[in-house]
Amino acid sequence: MGRKQEVVIEIKLKKSIQRKLILIFFTFLSFYATLGSYPLFNLDEGAFSEATREMLVGKDFITTYLNGELRFDKPILIYWLQALSASIFGLNEFAMRLPSAIAATIWAFFLYIFTRRWFGEEKAFWATFFMVGSLHISIIAKAAIADALLNLFIVLSLFTFYNYYRTRKNFYLYISFAAVALGTLTKGPIAILIPLAVGLLFLKDFNLWLKTVFNPVGLAIFFAITAPWYVMEYLRHGDEFIQGFFIKHNINRFKSTMEGHSGGFFYYVLVILVGLLPFTSIFLKSLTYLCKWFNRPLTKYLAIWFLFVFAFFSFSSTKLPHYLVYGYTPLFILMSLYVDRVRTKKALLLPYMIFVTIFFALPFGKDAVLEIIKGSYEYYIVEALDFSWGYILFFAIAFLAGIFAIWRLKEEYALILASFFTIVGVNFFIAKTYANAVEEPIKEAALFAKEHNLKVVMEGINAPSFAFYYQNITPRRSPKEGEVVFTKITNLKNYKNFDILFAKNAIVLLKERR
Predict the structure, then answer these.
(1) Is the separation of the CB atoms in 31 and 132 below 8 Å?
(2) What gap in Å lies between CA 12 and CA 10, rounded to an integer?
(3) Is the Cα dihedral 182, 186, 188, 190 positive or negative?
(4) Lowest pLDDT segment from 149-153, 165-169, 235-239, 505-509
(5) What is the three-class DSSP state of 512?
(6) Which pLDDT belongs to residue 4?
(7) What is the chain's alpha carbon radius of gyration, rounded to the nearest angstrom?
(8) Where residue 457 falls among pLDDT bands split at 50, 70, 90?
(9) 503 φ, ψ (degrees, to nearest 5)
(10) By the 8 A CB rule, do 40 and 96 touch?
C-alpha cells in the first residue's frame, strides 16, 4: 500500500470517528440533557406518569388507572418501563422520560446500522443526524409517552422485514414479528397496521405477503409476546376493555375527533415543515426527486413507508403532531441521498433563519398579543411567559451564527451549527419558558396541596400532572364540602363565595365557603 493510500485511509478514519462523535454528542444534547429540567407537560406526559404512579402505589401491573378510573388508552409496556425507571430513580420527571430517551437512542442506532449496510457510512451519518438533530424528534424522543418506544419497534420491524426480503433469512422475519408484537404491547393495532400495509404495498404479491404474514413460527412469537397481557386484561374487564381500548381509542380515533385534536387534511404538511427544522430545505429538495424514489427497491420501500403513514393519518379525524413521526425514519434516509442537492447555503439555512427570527421577535410582540386575547385563559399564559435577557441574547446569537454559517462555513458544518442552535433553542429556552409559565404553577400548586394535606378535586381543567406531584388521586368533578378545587383562573366566575389558597399565572386552588 502506497503512502498516498495510507493518507486517504487515515483521513477517512478520522472523518468517520469525527462523525460518530458528532452523533453521540447530539444524541446526548437532544435526548438526555434536559430530561429532568422542567415539569411534566399536560396532557399526555402528565397522564402517562400519573398512571404509572398509580400502578406502583396499587401494585397492579396489569391494568392501568388514571385518577382512580380505568385507563384503556394504551397497552402496558411503556408503563412497565416507566415503573422500572421510577423504582430506580424515584418518581420524578427524569425517571418518567428516561425510557423514551433510551428507546430513541436504540432507534437511532438501528437507523445508522441499516443505512450504513445499504447506502454506506456517509449516508448513515446524515440519516441519523437528521433524526437526532431535528426539532420534532428532539421533543418526542424524551417525552414521557409511548411514541418513542413505538417508533423503535416500527423501525425495527420494517428494517428487518426488508432484510428478510433481500436475504430470505428467517432470522430477520422472526425479529420483525417480535418487534411488531412489542409495538402492539406499546400502542396497540397501529404497530401491526403500518408494517402490514407497507409490506403489502411493497411486495404487490398477495400470495407472498400472505405466506410471510402467516408464517407459523412468526405468529407463535407474536402471540407468545402479546397474548398474555391482552388475555389477562380481557378476562378482567371483558367487553369494557374491548370497547374502551379497541373501539374508543383505536377505531374511533380514526373515525372521529377525540379530545379536541382536529385538523384539516393538510395539517401534517405544516407539521412536517416545522418538525424537520432545521433540515426542511433538504426535505423539500428531496421531494423534487419523488419519482426517482420508486426506481430502486429500497428507496421504493422507504417511499411507501413514509407516504402510507402521511396519507393514513391525514385521513384520520383525530390528529396529533407525533403521529407523523411513525413515517419520519424512511424520510431521513431518503433525505440523506439528496443532502448535497440544495444549491446554495442561503436556501439550505432559510428555514433555520426564519425559525430563529420568529422566536427572537416573540418577546417584542408579547404586548400586542395580550391586547388581542385579553380576558381569555390564554391571556394569563402569555402574560406569564418570561422572556429573559438570556433568551433574547441566545436567539440573537443564533441569528448571527446563521449569517456566519451562510457566508463562511461549508455546507456540512453549516447544517451542524444550525442543528445545534435549533436543539439548544427548543430544549433550553423555548420549552423551558413555556414550562415555567404553564406547567411549573401546576407542580407548585400540587406540592402546596400535598404540604398542607388538602383534599383536592379538579374542575374545569384537565392536568393529570397535578395528581402526580400531589401524589394522590385527584378526581375531576364538582367539590364536596371541605374539598379544595384546582381550576383555571378564568373559572372563578363559576364560584360565588370562596377563598383562594394558591394562585399563580393561569391556575388557582380555591375553597368555597359554606
Answers:
(1) yes
(2) 5
(3) negative
(4) 235-239
(5) strand
(6) 61
(7) 24
(8) very high
(9) -145, 135
(10) yes
For 242, the grid coordinates are 374491548
The torsion defined by the Cα of 410, 412, 416 and 422, in degrees rounded to 10, comes to: 80
pLDDT class of 339 with cuts at 50, 70, 90 = very high
User: How far is Cα 305 from Cα 387, in angstroms, rounded to an integer?
Assistant: 41
**Is the pLDDT at 414 greater than 90, yes or no?**
yes
CA nearest neighbour of 334 among 278, 408, 283, 401: 283
> What is d(CA 349, CA 403) in angstroms, rounded to the nearest whole number?
9
Enter the pTM of the model.
0.93
Cell numbers that stand for 459 in this block? 374542575
DSSP 91: S
Q: DSSP character for 30?
A: I
Using CA atoms, how far residue 332 sits from 94, 280, 325, 359, in Å, is 28, 11, 11, 26
Percentage above 70 pLDDT, the chain: 94
Contacts of 229 (CB under 8 A, 6+ apart): 62, 75, 76, 185
Q: How far apart are CA 276 and CA 451, in angstroms?
A: 43
End-to-end CA distance of the chain: 92
pLDDT tens digits for range 218-277: 999 999 999 999 999 999 888 888 887 776 656 655 555 555 445 667 889 999 999 999
Q: Please work out, in degrees rounded to the nearest 5, the angle formed at the alpha carbon of residue 228 by the alpha carbons of 227 and 233.
A: 95
> If you search the block for the grid coordinates 411514541, which residue do you land on?
147
Cis, bond preceding 196 (omega within 30 deg of 0): no
Q: How many CB atoms lie within 10 A of CB 422?
A: 24
Bridge-partner residues for 484, per DSSP? 456
Work out the angle at residue 297's Cα, subtended by the Cα atoms of residues 295 and 303, and round it to the nearest 5 degrees.
75
Contacts of 390 (CB under 8 A, 6+ apart): 429
Burial zone of 65 (CB within 10 Å; 0-12 exposed, 13-18 middle, 19+ buried) = middle
Alpha carbon distance 168, 202 (integer Å): 16
Q: How many CB atoms lie within 10 A of CB 5?
A: 9
Neighbours of 363 (CB within 10 A): 17
Residue 481's φ and ψ, nearest 5 degrees, are -60, 130
